[in-house]
Design goal:
11 helices, elongated, single chain, alpha+beta
């Protein structure tokens, strides 16, 4: 029984459930181990290997979620800050949502890995979350999901309806440009060039009026191009200009790693920034400074100036 072909999609599934790439990898490893130990009991007349694996993975995720708090973004915890000079005090006691490193796994459906959607799903009860992903994203039948969750088709349909209502305010994913969209890539490329130069007016011109900037593990966040720009002025005043960026993708969204110049020469990894592009403008930038996120994306900690 070859289970490896299913690893990538299972990691994406567990990520949607947990909001953590590292935990997702660990839970998939546990799923594979359980499946291997139970391989003699697998009955192909009852379910495909894929359906059987998802049943195991779902149980593993539900058990894990019993002991874990939801993973939010700063914008999910309170009102935006109105002080661009507020202290940047990290909150390490909060299990922050992590981005998904696209380059690590070949996953077909990436739109449902977007940070805003995964953050919204964290608010759902665990079983509703599982039903939503299994039915809407992975397109299992209601009967298959009922079998995976040990419940009835009616209960699955009811949970799906409640989950849809709860997520109705997240926005239309169709409005958000994907990395494959040439226009979205160009917007982020222009943003990167302005960022490298410390060109705050150039950055602000690329923002929507209500653009959001958030920076986990710092719990504060900003809304609006004015405060966004004032905060970026603060960043460049502290760190200088002449940055370096490296493009990547995260959960179906364009992103880049930002490297700050250091006095002794070269550049040191500072943040991973994940962009939401709507209507040819940056509508949201989630800036990660977590070493675990850097490790997941396999970003080099330093780049020489040669």
């Amino acid at each position: 029984m070859d289970l490896e072909p299913y690893r990538a999609e299972l990691v994406a599934y567990c990520y949607r459930m947990l909001g953590s790439f590292h935990e997702a990898e660990d839970l998939v490893q546990e799923t594979m181990l359980r499946a291997w130990k139970a391989r003699e009991r697998y009955d192909s007349s009852r379910a495909s290997v894929r359906t059987w694996l998802y049943r195991i993975a779902t149980n593993v995720c539900l058990t894990a979620l019993e002991r874990r708090a939801r993973r939010p973004l700063p914008s999910g915890l309170g009102a935006p800050s109105e002080d661009p000079g507020a202290p940047l005090t990290p909150a390490f006691d909060i299990p922050w949502l992590q981005p998904f490193p696209d380059a690590r796994y070949d996953v077909e459906a990436r739109g449902d890995l977007r940070l805003a959607l995964v953050a919204a799903m964290q608010v759902l009860p665990a079983r509703q979350r599982a039903v939503l992903v299994l039915r809407e994203v992975l397109e299992f039948s209601a009967a298959e999901v009922a079998e995976q969750l040990g419940t009835t088709v009616a209960a699955v349909n009811s949970a799906l309806q409640r989950a849809r209502v709860a997520l109705a305010g997240v926005g239309d994913p169709g409005e958000v440009a994907e990395p494959a969209d040439a226009g979205a890539r160009e917007v982020v490329a222009r943003y990167a060039r302005a960022f490298e130069a410390g060109d705050v007016p150039g950055l602000v011109r690329l923002l929507t009026d209500e653009a959001v900037l958030e920076m986990p593990p710092v719990p504060l966040w900003y809304r609006g191009s004015r405060d966004y720009g004032l905060f970026m002025e603060r960043v460049f005043a502290l760190r200088g200009t002449g940055w370096l960026t490296r493009a990547c993708e995260a959960g179906g969204q364009p992103a880049f790693a930002a490297y700050a110049p250091v006095p002794e020469g070269g550049f040191r990894l500072h943040t991973l920034q994940v962009f939401t592009v709507v209507g040819g403008r940056v509508a949201r930038n989630v800036v990660f400074a977590d070493p675990q996120v850097f490790a997941a994306f396999r970003l080099p900690p330093e780049i020489s100036s040669d």
